[in-house]
Hints:
Structural class: mainly beta
Amino acid sequence: MPxxxxxxxxxxxxxxxxxxxxDPISAEYFVKRSEAHxxxxxxxxxxxxxxxxxxxxxxxxxxx
Length: 64
């Protein structure tokens, strides 16, 4: 994960709907859209195409 000190590791199921997160597998940022899908918002993603995630996938979220 980029700059690990600013990201907290959580399971995908613990990310709130509408919350952005970092996926270490694709090295891209996403926004959670449903309990199983998220839209890529970095790189080539414009937020329109959904990718599937498993509930126990580990992702990174910014610390609050």
